[in-house]
Design goal:
single chain; about 500 residues; alpha/beta; Rossmann fold; Isoleucyl-tRNA Synthetase, Domain 1; 3 domains; 4-stranded parallel beta sheet; 4-stranded antiparallel beta sheet; 16 helices
């Protein structure tokens, strides 16, 4: 490929030149959501991070198979391999079928990812659809001597594995430290060691989600699904495995151990991890109760929000920080992103109004190369946007008559902005500020008041026409005795 990409490999702890195993084919697996609640801001960061990687590799000419899983079984409520599956617990509370819960929140996740303009993955497998394959992997690990059975449950023997391989190589954890620091947790008594993890759990009588197996009616351990689904769709060795920093240990560490124990070698060449979104320095997440859902962000309906923020403002906010650095939430940061995005999109519109000259005062090819260099350096989107805003100043200077640009360079400048802002960064040219929403609301209210006047004057043709036109535009009208209500579909 013409561009040499460097990505930070968590396994080697350094930036490495990206060299796919079977170039130009690239296999990329990303840990997707556990679908037992509304998607929140923390879900947006990995989705957008790996969407940028998917877009950029595809732009460069690689043929990417992007697999992102849906966890709909096997994710327990605590770290002792005990308790209910989180989806089953939600289903019990709401008196619904577990898969009804899973489907509802999967749909919600897809809706919000579409709002954020993330591309759908090539394949989106569900953990519950791969129970047979997960059982087969457990059999291979047992056969190779790295797992044991206790009371119908199967556990991975970390200590035995560590004698031949290095458990902790991804996270930097040392087994001796795990042994000395491991706290006693209820439900660990049947394990040989408290740091061993479940490959298969025997279901308690009240456990809803269960499948028959050689060992018991039960369900797979959480870590098992990604080892199975990644290699099923990408092969026993593939290029990139991504996910949040919170998954590095134990989830991804256990994935390495499982795959190595089964196949005698690791599956993943490059491990990538995005950092967390925080609120006042704390990780945002359901378990801490400090999360803001994407729906709340889009509507402004949350006590921490000063206003509503558009999906593109959220996307731009996330891209203004390097994916490996923590990103702290604040209204001030989101409002600055809203203004910055508006300035960028306005400048792109201004390009079409610029007058040309015979010469240029900008080295357009150097400007374009700087944009590529930023992304080639471990997807450095903050530097990319710094260069693009340098270009914004140039665009505004041309518009003010202080700089000049040739016709050919103007065309290349326009193509460069469309390529990096829309095609690769995935931003959309839409209105982003609250004032625009206020104007829209005012216009709709004027039309509906005009319709109300027409009805009072028995001009039903005009009244019906306004109603029909607004309905076609996605405005739902509810007539009331004292006026009307409306909402956007």
């Amino acid at each position: 490929m013409e561009h040499k990409i460097h990505i930070y490999n968590t396994l080697s702890r350094k930036k490495e030149v990206f060299e796919p195993i079977n170039s130009p084919n690239v296999g990329m697996y990303v840990c997707g959501p556990t679908v037992y609640g509304d998607p929140h801001l923390g879900h947006a960061r990995p989705a957008i991070t790996y969407d940028i990687l998917f877009r950029y590799l595809t732009h460069l000419g690689y043929k990417v198979r992007y697999v992102r899983n849906i966890t709909d079984v096997g994710h327990l409520v605590n770290d002792a391999d005990q308790g209910e599956d989180k989806i089953a617990k939600k289903a019990r509370i709401e008196q619904l079928e577990p898969m009804e819960i899973a489907q509802f929140y999967t749909n919600s996740y897809h809706d919000k990812m579409r709002d954020l303009n993330t591309l759908r993955p090539s394949i989106e497998p569900h953990a519950s659809g791969h129970i047979i394959e997960q059982q087969e992997l457990v059999r291979k690990i047992i056969k190779n001597g790295y797992a044991y059975e206790k009371n119908g449950s199967i556990y991975f023997d970390v200590e035995k594995y560590n004698k031949k391989y290095n458990y902790g190589k991804l996270s930097g954890r040392v087994l001796d430290d795990l042994q000395s620091n491991n706290r006693e947790l209820e439900g660990q008594e049947e394990k040989n060691n408290p740091f061993d993890f479940a490959l298969w759990k025997k279901a308690e009588p009240e456990h809803i989600m269960r499948w028959p197996s050689d060992w018991s009616d039960g369900f797979p351990g959480w870590h098992l699904e990604c080892s199975v689904m990644s290699t099923k769709y990408l092969g026993e060795k593939f290029d990139i495995h991504g996910g949040g920093m919170d998954l590095l240990f134990p989830h991804h560490e256990c994935e390495i151990a499982q795959s190595t124990a089964a196949n005698g070698e690791e599956s993943v060449k490059y491990w990538m991890h995005n950092n967390m979104i925080t609120i006042e320095g704390q990780k945002m997440g359901k378990s801490l109760g400090n999360f803001i859902t994407l729906e709340e962000l889009f509507t402004g309906n949350h006590k921490l929000l000063a206003q509503a923020y558009s999906p593109m403002t959220i996307r731009f906010f996330i891209l203004q920080s390097h994916y490996r650095k923590p990103l702290d939430f604040s209204n001030e940061a989101l409002q600055a992103s809203e203004k910055g995005l508006e300035r960028l999109l306005t400048a792109i519109k201004t390009i079409d109004t610029l007058k040309t000259s015979e010469k240029s005062s900008l080295d357009i090819k150097n400007f374009k190369q700087k944009c590529y260099d930023a992304l080639n350096d471990d997807l450095n989107t903050p530097i990319l946007f710094a260069h693009l805003f340098d270009g914004v100043r140039y665009i505004n200077s041309i518009a003010d008559g202080n700089d000049i640009i040739s016709s050919a360079d103007l065309q290349e400048l326009k193509e460069t902005y469309h390529k990096f802002v829309f095609e690769i960064a995935g931003l959309k040219n839409i209105e982003t500020n609250a004032a625009s929403n206020d104007k829209l609301e005012s216009v709709i209210n004027i039309l509906l008041n005009t319709r109300l006047d027409a009805k009072n004057n028995k001009d039903f043709a005009t009244s019906d026409k306004i109603r029909d036109l607004l309905s076609e535009a996605g405005i739902i009208i509810k007539d009331k005795k004292d006026g009307f209500e409306w909402e956007i579909k």
